[in-house]
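If your schedule permits, I should be very grateful for your opinion on a structural question. I have a record of one protein: its chain in single-letter code and its fold written as discrete structure tokens. Would you kindly read the sequence against the tokens and tell me how you understand this chain to fold? Thank you for your consideration; the sequence and its tokens are set out here.


***
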Amino acid sequence: MDPDIVRGLLDAERAEATALLASMRARLTAVVDAAVDEHADDEHDPEGSTLAFERGQLVSQIERSSRRLSEIDAAVARLDDGTYGRCVRCEGEISEVRLEAIPATEVCITCAGRR
């Protein structure tokens, strides 16, 4: 794949992931603020468990999005150092079809199947 095209794809993914992460952090702040304002008692308040569940879901989504940003940054670093498109496990070539589908992938389909 053309490095300029790859960089464009990775930049677009990074912008999308960054915007999603900012949105989720804002939602988490709103949920935490709502819990404080409502004097939520998770054990006795029917809304308490809903707030706790939502907070847990948002924390998980924030963690996944943060990992995604790290994966994208690692792919950009591989692009910069000339190792993009090589599997980090077996050092074999990652197919262009896989790279088009998952531009930040670091493993070939064979190694991905071994996980």
User: Anything to note?
Assistant: The chain has a mean pLDDT of 88.
